[in-house]
Design brief:
eight-stranded mixed β-sheet; five-stranded parallel β-sheet; Rossmann fold; 403 residues; 13 strands; alpha/beta
């Protein structure tokens, strides 16, 4: 099992607190492994195995527990008297009305509840209403580049070669352990993608026209890093001869973000200090799935590294927006506990005109929050342009505190 150190620390920090721990994220990103690591940690601190109840609702062994009353009675009968009991339920959304079980366990003494889910819908319904203010979410993503470098089998590859593989084959934990070649990894990614699309999107949201859903996936995947509207997606699909309404496209896109395949990033007016509701951007959870879908090469490098930076900022706990400043755009406005940070991302700025184009939006920002230009260049990295730091992207990624 790959250690996911930072996520594990977050779980440990909330141990035995009267709050439900909800681990969310795309299928196969490592949620079940995280809970297994945490259970090992509990045992290492003296917790007895009888105090741990672990259920995976994807496993046929627990099929009878998909009835919420049966699930509740199963757990209740195993609770320890006068000791803490740690209850783990994987893929809890598979049980209809699971929120009743979770709420009933929550109100009991000496019960510490941990649940995982692969669809954000689980937090937008009755669970959120019942447990308002009584749960925390840990949003998991596939491997960071630093975690990926620690996971891939030892090789003589350079950091840049590993990064190229990271973009090409993606960051799902098991994919990192496979031999890094197309014949081994692409069938694995295709299996993940098809399972997510059917189980966590189509079935969950009652979508029957999967071919249209896939058209939307490819439209979003090809447009990562570019402003896009629901109307534009509908126009693109209609131009191929398929009839679809804007409302249907909107519902399908929301289903894809609920399934954690894509993340929607809204624009933020830096000068006006307000969020804008038009022309947001979408980023994909894994570049390997995008490569599988589109078979695009290095010509798309700029958008791929922008996608990588977005996901890394989320891993580091930032809330992320696209910045608007008059007619200019700042790739990312990252909001954290210590304020804002601004990021521009480019493959290279060795060309002087490109450098000036990337610096200009950051130079126009009037505040004194950190401003960073991330590129793959070694030349120029470390230079400070009037308070704007030019940082090599790989160094920034490998300096991550997440592993």
């Amino acid at each position: 099992m790959l250690e996911r150190t930072e996520y594990l620390k977050r779980l440990i920090a909330f141990r035995d607190q009267k709050i439900i721990k909800v681990v969310t994220g795309v299928r196969r990103c490592g949620k079940s492994t995280l809970l297994a690591l945490y259970r090992d940690y509990l045992i290492s601190t003296g917790v007895e195995k009888a105090q741990i109840i672990s259920i995976n609702l994807e496993d046929m062994e627990y099929e009878a527990l998909l009835d919420y009353k049966v699930l509740y009675n199963f757990v209740k009968d195993k609770l320890c008297e006068n000791k803490s009991t740690y209850v783990f339920i994987d893929e809890v959304q598979n049980c209809k009305s699971f929120e009743k079980v979770v709420n009933s366990l929550f109100i009991k003494d000496n019960v510490d509840v941990y649940i995982t889910g692969s669809n954000a819908y689980m937090l937008s319904g009755e669970l959120a209403t019942l447990l308002s203010g009584r749960y925390i979410t840990i949003d998991m993503l596939p491997l960071s580049f630093k975690e990926y470098c620690q996971a891939v089998p030892a090789s003589n590859s350079s950091e840049r070669e590993k990064f190229n593989d990271y973009l090409r084959f993606g960051s799902f934990p098991y994919a990192a352990l496979l031999e890094q070649n197309t014949a081994k990894i692409m069938p694995y990614l295709e299996g993940i993608y098809n399972t997510i699309l059917i189980k966590d999107v189509a079935m969950r949201d009652g979508i029957t026209d999967v071919s249209v859903l896939e058209s939307i996936v490819k439209t979003l995947a090809s447009g990562i890093g570019s402003p896009i509207s629901i109307n534009k997606i509908a126009d693109t699909i209609q131009s191929s001869g398929r009839k679809i309404s804007v409302n249907t496209v909107d519902a399908y896109v929301r289903a894809l973000t609920d399934g954690y395949i894509f993340y929607k990033v809204d624009r933020y007016d830096i000068k006006g200090r307000q969020h804008l509701k038009t022309l947001g951007k979408y980023y994909i959870v894994d570049s390997g799935i995008r490569q599988m879908l589109l078979s695009q090469g290095s010509a798309d490098l700029g958008h791929l590294i922008e996608n990588t930076v977005y996901l890394e900022l989320r891993r580091r706990g930032f809330k992320v927006n696209v910045g608007k400043l008059e007619l200019k755009e700042v790739d990312f406005v990252a909001s954290g506990p210590e304020g804002l940070e601004y990021y521009q991302v480019a493959a290279s700025v060795l060309d002087e005109k490109t450098l000036q184009r990337e610096l200009e939006p950051l130079e126009k920002i009037g505040d004194h929050f950190p401003k960073v230009l991330l590129t793959l260049d070694d030349i120029g990295s470390g230079v400070n342009y009037n308070g704007i730091r030019h940082v090599n992207l790989l160094k920034w990624l490998l300096d991550s505190p997440l592993a």
